[in-house]
């Protein structure tokens, strides 16, 4: 894999199984969170209870910001409002522009920021392009459980080998 697709922490876990204290001990104080697949399955509007609990506890440790490629402001704003988080919809990851804007707004050292997502070609690449840490998590299904076989991710891993 090239540096563009470098995964700083390949968790192999759904986001809600990531340890806040472990992440904090690695120097992270700020998280940019992908929405669809990472916090909630794209085909549902109901945020899993485990995700809600994880976000609630995260607020004790980190500054949080939702960053989604979903073009629907209605969907992303309603998820942001339910979780009590600021958000950016239509973020156009892996384009750097919107992610850099958020990083600037957060006003933290890049060393202390990580992006968390379920996709290599959007979340991981934009994180590397912006020089922040990258965390890959398992995609959630409609019931909020990690999907067992993620075909898209397998294809993305293949493509990653050809990205310079
Ligand atoms: Mg996603």
Description:
The protein is α/β, with parallel strands linked by helices and 164 residues long. The chain has a single domain (3-160), classed as Rossmann fold (3-Layer(aba) Sandwich). It is 37% helix and 14% strand. It has six helices and six strands; from the N terminus they run E-H-E-H-E-H-E-H-E-H-E-H. Strands 1-6-5-2-3-4 form a six-stranded parallel beta sheet, sandwiched between helices. The chain is globular and about 40 Å long. Bound molecules: magnesium ion. Magnesium ion is lined by residues 34, 36-38, 117-119.
Amino-to-carboxy terminus distance:
9 Å
Structural class, by secondary structure, is alpha/beta
- Our Rg estimate from Cα atoms comes to 14 Å
| CATH class wording | Alpha Beta
Largest beta-sheet characterization: 6 strands, parallel
Query: What are the distinct ligands in this entry?
Result: magnesium ion
Per DSSP, the total helix count is 6
Share of residues in helices: 25-40%
What fraction of residues sit in β-strands? 5-15%
Give the tally of structural domains. 1
- Runs in which pLDDT lies below 50 for 5 or more consecutive residues are none
The CATH architecture assignment turns out to be 3-Layer(aba) Sandwich
Whole-number mean pLDDT: 96
Could you state the CATH homologous superfamily?
HAD superfamily/HAD-like
The SSE string, one letter per element, is EHEHEHEHEHEH
Strands, count: 6
Backbone shape = globular
Q: Strand order, biggest sheet?
A: 1-6-5-2-3-4
CATH fold field value: Rossmann fold
């Amino acid at each position: 894999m090239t540096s563009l697709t470098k995964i700083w922490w390949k968790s192999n876990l759904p986001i809600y199984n990531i340890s806040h204290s472990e992440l904090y001990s690695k120097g992270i104080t700020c998280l940019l969170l992908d929405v669809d697949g990472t916090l909630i399955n794209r085909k549902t509007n109901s945020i899993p209870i485990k995700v809600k609990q994880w976000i609630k506890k995260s607020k004790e440790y980190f500054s949080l910001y939702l960053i989604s490629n979903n073009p629907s402001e209605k969907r992303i704003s309603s998820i942001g409002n339910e979780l009590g988080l600021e958000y950016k919809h239509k973020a156009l990851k892996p384009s750097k522009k919107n992610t850099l804007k958020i990083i600037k707004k957060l006003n933290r050292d890049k060393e202390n920021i990580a992006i968390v997502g379920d996709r290599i070609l959007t979340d991981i690449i934009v994180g590397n392009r912006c020089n922040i840490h990258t965390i890959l998590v398992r995609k959630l299904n409609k019931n909020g459980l990690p999907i067992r076989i993620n075909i898209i991710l397998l294809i993305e891993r293949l493509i990653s080998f050809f990205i310079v």
